[in-house]
Structures are given as C-alpha cells and as structure tokens.
Design brief:
- The chain has an eight-stranded antiparallel barrel with strand order 1-2-3-4-7-8-10-11.
- The protein has a single domain, classed as Beta Barrel (AttH-like fold).
- 0% of the residues lie in helices and 60% in strands.
- The chain is mostly beta strands.
- A hairpin with a 5-residue loop joins β3 and β4.
- It starts with 19 loop residues before the first strand and ends in a 5-residue tail after the last strand.
Length: 307
Amino acid sequence: MPTPAAIDELRHIPDDNPLWNESYYFDWFTNDGSLGGYIRIGFYPNLGTVWYWACVVGPDRKLITVVSHDVEMPRSAQSLEVRADGIWADHVVETALDHMTCNLEAFGLEVDDPAEMYHDPRGALVPFGFELDFETDRNAYLWPPITPRYEIPCRVHGRVLIGTEEIEIDGWGQRDHSWGAARDWWTFGWCWSAGRLDDGTRWHSAGAFTGAGDWGVAYRLDGDATEFAEFDQVGVAADVGREGLVDVATLVIGDLTLTVEPLAWSPVLLVHPDGREARFPRALARFTAADGRSGHGWIEFNQPPPA
C-alpha cells in the first residue's frame, strides 16, 4: 500500500487559483470523551491570508475558541508559525510522519451557546493554550490519487491551559495535511470523521460529497493491525437540528456501522469574499458500533449556502 512521502510534511508551492489551499488539522480527545479540541491552520497564499482555528470543548464545559481569518502569512515559505493580535502558535515536524508538536498562546472566546459562532458571538476572553505532542499510532494513510492528502491516527499527550486551569492530556487524535485543490466551502458539502474505538480500532471517513452519492474515502485500522483496510463508499445519514447542528448521525464504512452522538460543538462561520456564507459545524462525538464497541472522535459537516 502506498505511504505518504516524508517531504510532504512540509508546505507546498501554490498554483494561481485564488482558493488554492493548504491545511493542517490536529484533532484530539481524552479516552473518556470528557474533553477534546482541535487546531486548523489553513493557508490561502493567493489571498495573502491564513485561517487559524483552535478550540477546547467538553460535554460539561463552555466552548473556548479562537477563530481568525485574517492572520498574516508566515515570513518563511516553510514556517508553520502564525502570529496575530492575541494569537501565537507554532507547529513543528519533529520526526516526519511520526511526531509533531503544537503550541498555542492565545486569548480564547468563552461561548455559552456554540451556535452563537454563526451570528455575533460574545463572551469573556480567557487565556488559552496548548502544549501537545502528536505521535503516530502505527501508520500513516495516503489518500488515493484524487487529491494530495494524508491522514495519521495519533496518540496525543501534553497540556491544555484555560485561564488558571492546567489540564494534563493523555489521549488520542488524528492529524491530516492536504494541499493543491481549491477549497471551495461555498459550493461543495461533505462529512469527515476520525476516531478510535475502545478495542484500539481506528477509522477515518470522508463522504457525503455534494453530487457524489455514497462515494467516499475511508480506512479502518483494526486494533491489532498495522495495515489499513480501504473503502471507496461511505454512507452518511444525519438528523439535523437547530442551526444546522446534527442531533444524531450514522456512518457506514464497509462492514463498520457507527452511530454518532455529538457531545460538544465548535462551529465556524465561513464568509466568501463575495459575501456568501457556509457553516462548518465540528463536534467531539461518541461513536458506537453495531456490535457494541464504542469510542470517541471528531465529526464535521460542511454546509454550503443554497445554490
């Protein structure tokens, strides 16, 4: 099975498409699902900007989030360090395809209702930071050659800082890196997920692409395996509640059927330069297999505006 190239951990040279995008995601969650978070660095070099998102969530916590769509591009073409008003973050490839570190010092917005992020979010600004290590859990998965992308299941450990609270993290997560294609949030919808079941089984899925039926990209990495089982169909069914937040969903990935219970949301509103708005709800979730196994992970739904 093809594997990612170590050099592709680095940033890439863009073409001239205004929406050419390169993104790095870092998701994490505790074993019991009581806490989770994610980081996204989204480079739009032809627009001269970086989208930077970070959050921490939990079923019994208020959302703490950082969302900035006007971060300056790094001075170096290979830097993953970002700086903006109230934000400093750096992301370092310690060992290619095996170990990355993420550090954040920022002021996060504390939000009572996550759906406020689609409107005029208000709340207290609190000191917020990460010191996290993402270490590969067995192997890295290279997507099929439809778009340059790879996904890496990880063990995650380190610290999360919220105000005066310091939380030690020893959990799990997923990181991914994609580049090359125009990331048009306002035309195409999708559903992405990744997580871990309690027997060590890892999965990743991307499906529900606008106009593509059940076609998708997915893997399953069994608890005692080092090789990925691959699938090209992903079934997604979702009961959508208020503000487009999903109440419950079902994923079908080969012979793995997962019931998805969102536990805590961290939505982002995405505004096109022409004013169109897409909604991007991401949730820490509990996933339960048809055979009773359960675990946690993250799920997202890109929701473009009506055509």
